Amino acid sequence: MRMRGGAIAGVFMLLLPIFCANLLSHASPTIVKDLNAPKFRHSRLAKSALQRQTSNEEQSELWTPLAHQGWKPCTESDAASIPEKSEGYVQVFLDGGLNQQRMGICDAVVVAKILNATLVIPQLEVNPVWQDSSSFMDIFDVDHFINVLKDDVSIVKELPDEFSWSTREYYGTAIRPTRIKTAPVHASANWYLENVSPVLQSYGIAAIAPFSHRLTFDNMPKYLQHLRCKVNFQALAFVPHIRHLGDALINRLRNPPREGNMVSNNYLREVTDLKPKQGAGKFAVLHLRFDKDMAAHSACDFGGGKAENLALAKYRQVIWGGRVINSQFTDEELRSQGRCPLTPEEVGLLLAALGFDNSTRLYLASHKVYGGERRISALRNLFPLMEDKKSLASSEERALIKGKASLLAAVDYYVGMHSDIFVSASPGNMHNAMVGHRTYNNMKIIRPNMALLGQVFLNKTLNWPEFQESVVEGHKNRQGQIRLRKAKQSLYTYPAPDCMCQA
């Protein structure tokens, strides 16, 4: 009987792989996805984090606004007034996402000022990654933009009829004498005077493309730096429907509806004009920059197994021809250097170590997270009150921004600028823009110490108290403290001293 039973068991083991393969071939996509779900790498720390307790003192210190740091916004321009006669029209075509376009808009205003020219409202290119065709007027309040800058630069919404031929399509079909495509990265003011002014004088118009990062941050007159700051921090306001939706989300985060009360379709209209009550709840915004593009470009391993690694390798081959930044380093080397984006699991552990507890109202400001809810679940376990646009607003309220990456990002930006704390999981354009804007307004931010976190997450022997001590110590001076801009750094990220004065 034993021999017979052993033989049967042997046959069963031989047939098991075939049986499983046959089962998976008929299984639903959800089951297959679950089997390939990313493995959480820090389960021991996560278990301790779930049992964490924070004192009232820790909570008070965490949510206390930044103390005054001796600096104040300073964008008063002492530039000469607009000349009576414009030298011509300047067009720019801007690519990239919302925040890269935002920087380009600021630089375009300054270039028009340098040239004594009239700026045409910048044209935004269709984003190749997000496929968003939103225009300047879809995102920003164009009348506010023109009015704030009316004493600094002449701006028009569109070209007069005599120049109506000057379109993106016109420049895409042949070499045109009115197109400037040789502007170097971080070009000086003199470069524009020497190379663009003659085109304006000859043709009355100059179209500059590409334009991103085509104006230097260094050796610029103070009035031009101030003008840049004025555009970024005062002139660029979102269109009303973005602000209204943002106000509704902010109110729902600060004053959540009572349990069992559903959000009505009219809730947006009902709360838009409300002011947060004294002592209303606080909330933090987390920009979780963990999309497929970011994951693939980093060359790091994120625990998704062979299936995920193959998918990312294929994506890299299609998008970049196999070229990946820092691909010559091992995953461990990249992590120890702080070059790997933080996963949702790692971001959750960072926040827990800094004192955020499970009663924290967390707003997730992100595009599509790579790995979806399966990957976000580790973060949601630690912060069950986490919300996003979809959970806070009805489909009717989101109709105007649905499928529009730039408008979705604009809502997140607006909510981020009204949060008590802003946390950026990984560096990028959104991180740079928000860090600069909140620094300008002396608002609390948390900038992850990527190198430190990479090293502590590699150390599998750390217990929770040791991990927490390392994280807290490594982030003491990364919560919005003023850092003066250095040469070649962007004033949109480091607004002092170009955009700020010592008070």
From TrEMBL:
GO BP: fucose metabolic process
Residues of the signal peptide: 1-27
Annotated pathway: Glycan metabolism
GO molecular function: glycosyltransferase activity
Gene Ontology CC terms: membrane
Topological relation to the membrane, as annotated: Single-pass membrane protein
Alphabetical UniProt keywords: Carbohydrate metabolism, Fucose metabolism, Glycoprotein, Glycosyltransferase, Membrane, Signal, Transferase, Transmembrane, Transmembrane helix
Location relative to the cell: Membrane
Family recorded in the similarity comment: Belongs to the glycosyltransferase GT106 family.
PANTHER family: O-FUCOSYLTRANSFERASE 2-RELATED, O-FUCOSYLTRANSFERASE 31
Protein name per its UniProtKB record: O-fucosyltransferase family protein
Gene from which the chain derives: LOC107791220
